[in-house]
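Readers of this paper often ask what the protein records in our data store actually look like. Nothing more is needed to write down the fold, since each code stands for a local backbone conformation. Below, we set out a record of this kind in full and without editing:
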Amino acid sequence: MKKTTIFMILFLLIALSFSPLLTSARTNSSTTIYVDDDNTQGPWDGSPTHPHQFIQDGIDAAGFGDTVFVYGGFYNEQIIIDKTLTLQGESMEDTIIDGTGLGRLCTIQETTNAVISGFTFQHAEPGAEALYLHHLTSAVITQNRFAYNNDKSIYLAGEHHLISENEFINNTYESNTIWIVSQDTTLLNNTITNNNGIGITVVARNSTITGNIIENNKKYGIIIRFVDNIVISQNIIQNNEVGIKSPYNTIGHFITNNIVSENTKAGIFLNSNEGKISNNIIENNSIGILQGYASAFNTISHNVFSSNCIGIQNFDTVSNSYTKNNFIKNTVHASFLNFLPLSSYGSENFEFDSWNNNYWDNWRIDLPKPIFGLYCVVIPFCLFDKNPASEPFYI
């Protein structure tokens, strides 16, 4: 009897020691649930043989961490995701979620780590976003196409999202294509082209926009509203009305290694402070960089300004520095207009913009290079590049 009791105790101890591993294994296992709009007659159990007919039915049947695989087809439905799962389309060319006659196409809310990949979201109607993220963290939206939507293609709230390798093309909404309200969001390697409004609108701190093609949008390529510390790097931004616009007093933007070209009003339009604009190719724009009222303490260095009507045009800017830029084949390399006397800006720290060691293709004299402008509207005035470079910099 004693031996039996001891054996049972040992057995229970061993079982208990393995139970966390068994629980973990059950938790980490995942199931794939299938959806196919061709299965109109049923039965519907989510298996490859009997897939669900509707995407929402597949989502409802999924558990934590499961994958819902959607075969190519035409899905005219609204879907809601409120759990951690992967929604995978067979291909974005063939797996279409269409919003004709509906409201919002897809909502992701109250969850973490949701993934959507392999779909076309199209024909969202006015007042209804194609994809709406709200009250969630760490969503991944990758390799989808957003086309012909008449409202925002994506509205991003929450935080820590990754939007990568998607296509945003031919959307007809006259305002915003991508609306970022989520902090710490990254837009990586997307194509945003031929949209009727603004490509990307940023309304949240610490967003990163890198490696994207942003072109042929009717309004702005990127606009930053009310927020600080946006990183814009390694993008091709061309043939928009304005390439990058920061129209309000914001701080700390980092704009680097972009190609900004052929934008009809301005390549970069800044009304911001303490930013760094460096190592960009800024060419064939009406104005390369346009800086507005009270833009101050920005560092603009190691850029190429080439074949713009005006390379840099400043209005009431103070305390910015321009160093080691190349000015080549612009109609006017740089100009300024200060409406107010320097003392009116209200701080002893303000001073005139400083220019030093830039290359000017029309200056061959070993003397300071004058930059002509107007002071107090009517007074001709000069600033000087103190030490112009004799050869262009390698950028």
Observations:
- The radius of gyration is 28 Å.
- Residues 1-27 have pLDDT under 50 and may be disordered.
- DSSP finds two helices and 41 strands in the chain.
